Structure formats: structure tokens, C-alpha cells
UniProtKB/TrEMBL annotation:
Protein name, UniProt field: DNA-binding MarR family transcriptional regulator
Short name of one Pfam family: MarR_2
Superkingdom of origin organism: Bacteria
Matching InterPro entries: HTH_MarR-typ, WH-like_DNA-bd_sf, WH_DNA-bd_sf
Keywords, in A-Z order: DNA-binding, Transcription, Transcription regulation
GO MF assignments: DNA binding; DNA-binding transcription factor activity
Domain HTH marR-type, residue spans: 8-137
Length: 145
């Protein structure tokens, strides 16, 4: 630990660093930007979704969402249409080619995770999961006070 670094500082620095490194490393592994990976994963998970909901889910501005979706559309991976319930909104969904790419990405992610956990026992994984659940519960408790 650094001179003034507490155990809490070290814990959250390592946690944040590991998360950031994992997202970047997988994106590099598949040759895509992290945002492109996130967008494909979100569309695979949620199906058709509005640009506005994508903006909130990805934590980026609307112009960035539009740019990414248009890039995917130009590649034949995403289709867009006006929301029939409210034509102020644009909906995006994976095309069949996009679904195949997202499925490939999902399989690649699964095998990547398995390789990263090589040498980490199931018991060790469960300990980390319990700690993370407790931290998240503490966050929720603090926010609800």
C-alpha cells in the first residue's frame, strides 16, 4: 500500500482497474471498440430498443449512439425504423447478420472468461461474488437513506 493509501482505497482501485482492463482487453481481443461491443451485447440482450434507451444504457450522448448505430447499419448488422407508437423515436435492432455476429461475440466472450478464470477456483469466485453483492447492497442502502 502507498503511504496514505487505505485498505479501502486499494480495494476499490484494484476493483475499478480490473473492470476497466477486462472491458478493454476483451474489446482488443475481438478487434472492436468497447462501445461497439457494448452496443452489440445490448441489442442482443434487449432486442429492438430506442436510441434514447441505448443512450441511457451505455451512458453516452445521443450523437454517439446515432453514429454507432449508423455504422452498424452501413455494415448490415443493425436495422433502424421510426417507433410506430411515437415517431419522434428511432428504434434499432440487430439484423440476421448482426444476430450471428452478436452470437459469435457471445461465444468468444464465454471462452475468453473461462481462460481468464483459469486457476481461480469456484470457491474463490463465490467469495468475490459475495463481497461484490455486499458492496452493491451497501450502495443501495446508502442511497435509500
Amino acid at each position: 500500500m502507498g503511504r496514505d493509501e487505505t485498505s479501502e482505497d486499494k480495494f476499490f482501485r484494484e476493483l475499478g482497474g480490473a473492470y476497466a482492463e477486462l472491458r478493454q482487453a476483451f474489446a482488443r481481443h475481438v478487434g472492436m471498440s468497447p462501445l461497439r461491443v457494448q452496443l452489440l451485447v445490448r441489442l442482443r440482450r434487449d432486442g429492438e430498443i430506442s436510441h434514447s434507451d441505448l443512450r441511457l444504457a451505455l451512458g453516452i450522448d445521443g450523437a454517439s449512439v446515432t453514429r454507432l448505430v449508423k455504422e452498424f447499419e452501413a455494415e448490415g448488422l443493425v436495422g433502424r425504423r421510426l417507433d410506430p407508437a411515437d415517431n419522434r423515436y428511432t428504434l434499432a435492432a440487430l439484423t440476421p447478420a448482426g444476430e450471428r455476429m452478436a452470437d459469435d461475440l457471445g461465444r468468444s466472450h464465454q471462452s475468453y472468461q473461462e481462460r481468464l478464470l483459469d486457476g481461480v477456483s469456484t470457491q474463490e469466485q463465490e467469495i468475490v461474488l459475495r463481497v461484490l453483492r455486499r458492496v452493491r447492497a451497501n450502495v443501495t442502502e446508502r442511497e435509500n437513506r
